[in-house]
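PROTOCOL LOG
Step 1. Enter all chains and additional molecules of the complex.
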Amino acid sequence: MRFLRQVGLTFEQQQELQPFWASTLAVWRARRPAVLGLGALMIGIVLLQLLVQVLLNLWNRNFFDALERRDAHALWVQIQMFVPLAAGSIVLAATSVWGRMTAQRGWREALTRHVIGRWLANGRYARLNGMMRGTENPEYRIASDIRVATDAPVDLALAFFASIITAFTFFGVLWTVGGSIDVPLFGETLTIPGYLVIGVILYSTLMSGLMTVVGHHLASVIERLNQSDAELREAANAFRGEPSATAADGGKRADLSLKLQAALLWWRELCWQLMRTTLISHGNLLLAPVVAWVLCVPKYLSGAMSLGELTQTAAAFVTVQGAFNWLVDNYQRLADWRSSAHRVSTLVAALDDLEAKEAAPRSEALADA
Amino acid sequence: MKRILVATDGSDGGNRALDAAVELAGATGAALNIVTIGGNVTGADLRKLADRGGDLSKSLQTQADKVLKQAAVRATRLGHRPAALRCEWGDPAEAILDLARRDKADAIVLGRRGRGRLSRLLMGSVSQKVASLAPCTVVVVP
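Step 2. Run joint prediction.
Step 3. Record the structure below.
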């Protein structure tokens, strides 16, 4: 579970991100109605999308049952039903994009204005550079890191919520439609209830386990690459305002080459890590539907399951398996977010420090008076 | 011949090139500049460093400094104190050629041992590239 520890946050890392969350809460409180409204809207959209997904899953069953019966009228009815379902799904997907991006834009705007306000106040921007390690390139942190730090959590949180409710909903489909299976064992018959639920849990555990083994360095490599990129920017930034001859001949040139070399080496390692994880993820993409079909086929061949039920349960199996993969699918984004949020946190912590120093003489003066 | 540039990575091949360069510098009375091209790190090393949150730039610099220090000690012991120690980064052949032009070297000495077989097949060996493009004499030590 080393991988989970890498992707998750240790107590120290949570402490490091505290300034980021404190600033976020401050700007959220100031816009409480908008935050609550958008939050409710996005949760509503996720629930409606799940409803449409369940209806499409049922439609799948009815369509293939009609096909198996060669029932032209029932097929025509199903085709007519598909139109509003598809339209609903499309409208919800577009609304979801609007909701997510509006929330991300609002959060980014509020946090960026908040940080810029504090950065420019009392000429702090002039005193900040080089004050403490990790506060270099504040412009980049404000322009880019805040974007990544506010962008990813919205998508990740919604995807996580959708994955949880999708997994539980489609467990129900697998349990009721898949039913139980009788397995002959040493002359006896063993009945396994909800065998497709057990199957999807075992298969997902196997795939997640494989991904954990193969990709357990990925999160830390991404984080180191992001850090190296930031150091490269910092090394290039050091040339600003330098007379050309001094800049070209000095140690700054060597430092820039060194930082570029480090970033390229991390990039090379990221390439190898992604190749390894792609072997598993692409294999899973091909294998998951086949596993679902193979698990359902005995019941279909025995006549206990119709063609519609077969396609419905296979689709449900793939849906649940996909929901289980939330962490695996998103750890690159999680690692990116962690790096950016950490850089924003360091900047905010430095601004807190400066504010505290500015406030101290005033407090002393008031006490003296 | 006023200045000789020798490239080493601390390997046996690099040491043989250094020994030859010292001998050449001794015979001609030329100044000896030693260069190492940093960044020779395996994937396993990178993964270890990533897991413990290490600083790659610092590790690369330390590794390069160690190679240069050992080369300087070896050259001095062989009777020729180096005039300059240089550390460069990036493509080895490009970096050596660039430095030879900047330092106005009259000769470049380097070992024949290059990268791995696949890299050599794809990109050609460092010694071949340097020998083809150098503005001065190139000595490739087997």
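Step 4. Note key features.
The beta strands of chain B are 3-7, 31-37, 84-88, 107-111, 137-141.
Chain B touches chain A at residues 38-39, 41, 43, 46-47, 49-51, 53, 56-57, 60-61, 87-90 (CB under 8 Å).
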